[in-house]
Design goal:
By secondary structure, the protein is mainly α. It has two domains: 52 residues, Homeodomain-like (Arc Repressor Mutant, subunit A, Orthogonal Bundle), CATH 1.10.10.60; 138 residues, Orthogonal Bundle (Tetracycline Repressor, domain 2). Helices cover 75% and strands 0% of the residues. Helix 4 runs antiparallel to helix 5 and helix 5 runs antiparallel to helix 9. The longest helix has 27 residues. It is globular, with a radius of gyration of 19 Å. It starts with 5 loop residues before the first helix and ends in a 5-residue tail after the last helix.
């Protein structure tokens, strides 16, 4: 059988990840089976194991997939001449949009639970978060240096923004009627306006 080209391999792997997100919108990761992922993706178990050693590896791949979209946005924003406050607003908006996704909510809940017993999950999640926090901190520091943002503890603000997405996502999972996402977006925008120098 001929080998798949790199783009075809990437497409198949992407299909498995998308199938995982779709399945996780309705059930916990611990109950999800590899057979269900393969059925949703229209792939064989052999194809699954060609990309992922086991279910835990798949969970880590979902974690990286979740992070990748925000990382791409951060790359795009850093490539522009956008102001610090514009970058922070765009990042917060993207993070809140992800927080509303039921599949991502389930994965985040499972990841936080796995962190208690799986050092590799904790290490990977902590590493990805630390990189993102450092980038946000740099944006804040530049904004302060340019006089566009009021003097603010940069690392604290970066940590707050990151925790906001995860925390709201988990709170929405506890009680879907606790708040309205449109109001959350408005409140975050008002908070960010409060640190912007007119």
């Amino acid at each position: 059988m001929p080998k798949l080209s790199a783009p075809s391999r990437d497409q198949r792997r992407r299909a498995l990840l998308e199938a995982g997100w779709h399945c996780l919108a309705t059930q916990a990761f611990r109950h999800l089976t590899i057979d269900e992922i393969c059925a949703e993706a229209g792939a064989s178990k052999g194809a699954f194991y060609g990309y992922f050693d086991h279910k835990q590896t798949f969970l880590l791949a979902l974690l990286e997939d979740d992070a990748a979209a925000l990382d791409v946005l951060m790359d795009e924003l850093e490539a522009t001449q956008a102001s610090a406050i514009h970058r922070l607003r765009r990042f917060a908006a993207a993070m809140l949009a992800q927080a509303q996704d039921p599949g991502r909510l389930q994965v985040k809940a499972d990841l936080w639970a796995e962190m208690l017993t799986q050092p590799d999950v904790r290490t990977r999640l902590a590493g990805a978060t630390a990189v993102r926090r450092a980038r946000l901190r740099t944006w804040v520091e530049h904004g302060i240096a340019e006089g566009a943002l009021v003097a603010t503890p940069a690392n604290a603000l970066a940590s707050l923004l990151l925790a906001l997405g995860d925390g709201l996502s988990l709170h929405a999972g506890l009680d879907q009627q606790a708040f309205q996402w449109a109001n959350i977006r408005r409140a975050v925008d008002l908070l960010l306006s409060g640190i912007s120098v007119p």
